[in-house]
Write a structure and sequence with these properties.
Length: 464
């Protein structure tokens, strides 16, 4: 995309998290960034310093007799080779709410406007430095919960997904161009059939590529949002102990009193590159205790919403009716059965368990920690059959908006293919093919809609 910097107003925000810290950064972007910074800065003449330099000085209040606010380092980055493609100034000040807020106020009083969430990144998009899917990758990168999620986001930021989408769109344009040629020069016999056949073959190839992209989406979504994993079982079987083992930290309260966990507790943990959103639940059983009752209801709801259920049984006691009920309730969910407390004499044998090839059964003891490693391995295998290879994170669709657009493009291609197969004329199929081209363009923002853009960037944090 060409760099065409439009002259927008100059925006400013605190780019570091609020609170106390060694350093905080107030960032400005826009054609007035340097001039505004200069008004409140005592040090070198910023209009004369070289680009990509950091400069020592003081922030002063020009409206209050040059009162000193802080000792700072000011980074100067001149357009167009900056994050936003505009002049960018970053004031590195001392961290702390008072200092950073006062500097921000000064900047605003001297001509800048407070940036909206994501507005710096939006500028990078509007100025043509990155496309929409790359902008979204910035947010994914900030929010990455595991190293694999970070890699996938970084690849998307590098433009890997954009490149694949651009190629697909080009292939569609090539088909459409071919159709135009044949429609314009229909003089030779059989032009229509040849065109139709060619369109069909190429549409099938494009459809296959979209399908393979969509195939990465399940893994991609897990990488991004974490796998909702509910730990369920009767009271006292060791659910909270298991959560603590997987977290490698004593987060949940464990006691020998049944009914210790009364409300769901959730934590993120990285298991072999899979971000698990672990949900420890209250023991499921009949109870008249009002508080416990609500907990039990929430446990049942957690099963409904889970991508994976860890069913914990106490292997040192015979299987109870309540255990059986849980096994039935989770029969159609992705699950792993844990025979816990195997450090004690066993009272459940595998033959007591449902005969179900899909379900892995693991013996665990949260006391000896037996079974924790095998459990982690199985969880990783369930979602990433061969582990996550570099190849897979190269292009991975992680974003719900992208998934939905790819799905719609796939539907459009399916219509093209079934139409052509049924002998419909090419110019009818052409309409849906063009629709697929438009839908793919929405991923990269080549066809963008003002309202959609606002919604997207609103999800960003301030100062990014
Ligand atoms: N021997 C043995 N005891 C265990 C094991 N796992 C948990 N326990 C004990 O079992 C008791 C209950 O453990 P919790 O982790 O609180 O069980 P829970 O399923 O969360 O119980 P509720 O929250 O009450 O539903 C505690 O005394 C644990 O120390 C195990 O593998 N072996
Ligand atoms: Mg518990």
């Amino acid at each position: 995309m060409p760099l065409m910097t439009t002259d927008y107003d100059t925006i400013a925000a605190i780019s570091t998290p609020p609170g106390v810290g060694g350093i905080a950064i107030v960032r400005l972007s826009g054609s007035e960034a340097l001039a505004i910074a200069q008004q409140i800065y005592r040090g070198k003449d910023l209009s004369q310093v070289a680009t990509d330099t950091i400069n020592y000085g003081h922030i002063v209040d020009p409206q209050a007799e040059q009162r000193e606010i802080d000792e700072v380092m000011v980074s100067v980055m001149r357009a167009p080779k900056t994050y936003t493609c505009e002049d960018v100034v970053e004031i590195n000040c001392h961290g702390g709410l008072q200092v950073t807020n006062q500097i921000l106020q000064l900047v605003l009083r001297n001509g800048a406007r407070l940036a909206e969430p994501g507005e710096f990144t939006k500028r990078a998009f509007l100025n043509g430095r990155i496309d929409l899917s790359q902008s979204e990758a910035v947010m994914d990168l900030i929010e990455a919960k595991t190293d694999t999620a970070r890699k996938a986001a970084l690849n998307q930021l590098d433009g890997n997904l954009s490149a694949v989408i651009k190629k697909l769109r080009q292939s569609i344009v090539d088909i459409l161009a071919n159709v135009e040629v044949n429609i314009d020069y229909p003089e030779y016999d059989g032009a229509e059939e040849v065109t139709s056949q060619l369109m069909l073959e190429r549409s099938e190839a494009i459809k296959a590529k979209i399908q393979s992209l969509l195939a990465t989406a399940e893994q991609g979504k897990v990488l991004r949002d974490g796998l909702n994993t509910a730990i369920v079982g009767r009271p006292n079987v060791g659910k909270s102990s298991l959560l603590n083992r997987l977290l490698h930290e004593e987060k949940a309260i464990v006691t020998d009193v049944p009914g210790t966990t009364r409300d769901v507790l959730d934590e993120y943990v990285n298991v072999a590159g899979v971000p698990l959103h672990l949900i420890d639940t209250a023991g499921i059983h009949e109870t008249t205790d009002q508080v416990e009752k609500i907990g039990v209801e929430r446990s049942r709801a957690a099963i409904e919403q889970a991508d994976l259920v860890l069913v914990v049984l106490n292997a040192s006691e015979p299987l109870t009716a309540a255990d059986q009920e849980l096994l039935d309730a989770t029969a159609h969910t992705k699950r792993i059965i844990l025979l816990n407390k195997t450090d004690l004499p066993a009272r459940i044998t595998p033959s007591d368990l449902p005969d179900d090839e899909q379900t892995a059964v693991i013996k665990t003891s949260t006391v000896t920690e037996d079974g924790t490693k095998p459990l982690e391995t199985i969880i990783a295998k369930l979602f990433f059959t061969d582990g996550i290879s570099r190849q897979q994170t190269d292009v991975m669709v992680t974003n719900a908006r992208h998934i939905s657009l790819l799905q719609q493009a796939l539907d459009a291609l399916t219509t093209v293919i079934s139409g052509l197969t049924a002998g419909l004329p090419v110019d009818i199929a052409q309409i849906d093919l063009q629709r697929a081209w438009e839908l793919l363009g929405e991923i990269t923002g080549d066809n963008y809609d003002e309202e959609l853009m606002d919604q997207l960037f609103e999800q960003f944090c301030i100062g990014k």
